[in-house]
Design a protein that fits this description.
Belongs to the sigma-70 factor family. ECF subfamily. Residues 125-176 form the RNA polymerase sigma factor 70 region 4 type domain. This is RNA polymerase sigma-70 factor, ECF subfamily. It holds the Pfam family Sigma70_r4_2. By secondary structure, this protein is mainly alpha-helical. The protein has 2 domains: 1-114, Rna Polymerase Sigma Factor, Chain: A, CATH 1.10.1740.10; 132-191, Orthogonal Bundle (Arc Repressor Mutant, subunit A). Helices cover 74% and strands 0% of the residues. It has 9 helices and no strands. The chain has helices spanning 2-12, 16-35, 41-58, 71-94, 105-109, 117-130, 135-146, 151-158, 162-190. α1 (2-12) packs across α2 (16-35), α2 (16-35) packs across α3 (41-58) and α2 (16-35) packs across α4 (71-94). It is globular.
């Protein structure tokens, strides 16, 4: 854990080697987070880079207590919020549905160390199903279910009402339920 504190301190001090190590260590996490919003790999990679610039510029405001075992989890949550806001800003600029492409396989191999093999596969399948949702449902679903934002926060970030956020979430869940039911029905017939 001491190495994480040192890495953060060195990044705040603008040590380029530490920033590179931080970037490389968290790149897969960042790309997977952004890819749930931006489905063009090249554009998602650009958004991740923009997000890391924001992270490095505001890292000194990240509050952590030395010796806190949850520091990495808290750091990743803090970074996720910055990355999601950066992705949403990019979506506002694009104002259209992104082209859906797959992430390179090596990114999935860098899935967070706390997941076992089954969880990695389920995560990947869930992301593939979410990509099928209409963009407005997809954003709300990602923000509420996966990223843990409240409907009030979602409404504020996306410029919609809380009712619209709740409605989009309900429709997204219903559509995902149909996708999952259809997949299980297909698998039952295949067996």
């Amino acid at each position: 854990m001491e190495s994480l504190y040192k890495l953060i301190r060195d990044c705040i001090a603008r040590d380029s080697k530490s920033q590179r190590a931080f970037y490389e260590y968290y790149y897969g996490f960042a790309l997977k987070t952004v890819f749930r919003y931006i489905y063009q790999y090249d554009k998602a990679a650009d958004v991740v880079n923009d997000g890391f610039v924001k992270i490095f510029n505001s890292l000194e405001r990240f509050k952590f207590k030395k010796g806190d075992a949850d520091t990495e989890r808290i750091l990743m949550g803090w970074m996720k919020r910055i990355l999601i806001n950066t992705a949403i800003d990019e979506l506002r600029k694009l104002q259209n549905s992104p082209v859906v492409v797959e992430l390179p396989e090596y990114i999935w191999e860098q899935t967070d160390r706390c997941y076992n093999a089954d969880q990695k596969i389920l995560y990947k399948e869930l992301i593939c199903e979410i990509k099928r949702l209409p963009p407005s449902y997809r954003k709300v679903f990602n923000m509420f279910v996966i990223d843990g934002f409240s409907h009030g926060e979602i409404a504020n970030m996306l410029g919609i009402s809380e009712g619209t956020s709740k409605s989009a979430l309900a429709k997204a869940k219903a559509q995902l339920k149909r996708f999952i039911e259809n997949r299980f029905a297909e698998k039952s017939y295949a067996v």
